[in-house]
Amino acid sequence: MSGRISDSTVRRLSLYLRMLRDLERAGVEVVSSSQLAEPSGATSAQVRKDLSHFGSFGKRGRGYSVERLVGALQEILGLTHSWRLALVGVGKIGSALLGYGGLAARGFDVVAAFDVDEAKIGTHSFGLTIRPMPELRHVISELGVDIGVVATPTDVASEIAAELARAGVGAILNFAPIELAEVNGVPIRTVDIVLELEGLSYLLSEVGRRVASGAGA
Questions:
Q1: CB contact at 8 A, 150 and 89
Q2: Helix (H, G, I), strand (E, B), or coil: what is residue 65?
C-alpha cells in the first residue's frame, strides 16, 4: 500500500463493496471498472486508481472477479472479523442505532449501552441493559470494546469522547453536531445530519438558480 489513504478513497471503497455484494447476490461473476464507477459517482479511472493502492485485482479487458474483489475489499476495510461497539446516549438516535440490525450483519456488534438518565439505567433496550456512566471504563475493558459511539447532546459530547478514549477504545463515531478533536490519538469521525441536509439544500437551490437563469436568458 502506498502512503496514507484519504477518507474519500475509503468511502468509495465502501461504496464499491456495497455494489459488489449486490452483484454477488445477483449471481454476477465479473464486473468492469466502469460498472463500479457509475453508481458511486466516480470514473472508471478513479476506480482503478483507488484499487491500485492495494494491489492488482483485475486483468485489462476482462474486468474484476466479483467474488475475489469482495474478499479483498473486506480484508482492506477490516471487515473479516467483528468489531465491538459501546454506545453512549440512548436517546432517539442511540435507540435507532441499537435497533438497526444492519450493523451486526456488517460485523459491528453493539455490546454495551450507557446513559445518565436514572429512568433508563437498568432497563433493557434491544437485548442490552443500559448501564450508568461510572461503569464505562470497566465494561469497555472487560468486553474488549473497539469503537465508542457518541449519541449525546452537544454540550457533553467532547467530555464523553475523551472518556471513551481514556477507557481504551480504538476509534470513536460521533453523532453530536460538533467537531471533536482527537484524544490520545484516537480517530473520531462525525456524522452530522444537518450538514448533509444543508449540502442537499445547496444542490436543490443550485438547480433552482440554473432554471431561473435559463428562464431569464
A1: yes
A2: strand
* Rounded Cα–Cα distance for residues 33 and 58 (Å): 9
* Residue 131 DSSP code: E
Q: Is the distance from CB of 31 to CB of 84 less than 8 angstroms?
A: no
* 49 sits in which H/E element: helix 44-52
pLDDT tens column, 47-75:
999 998 888 886 666 889 999 999 999 99
Alpha-carbon dihedral 130, 133, 134, 140, rounded to 10 degrees: 80
User: Is 0.85 surpassed by the pTM of this model?
Assistant: no
Q: Which CATH code fits 7-76?
A: 1.10.10.10
69: its cell numbers: 474483489
Per CATH, the number for 84-194 is 3.40.50.720
Neighbours of 73 (CB within 10 A): 20
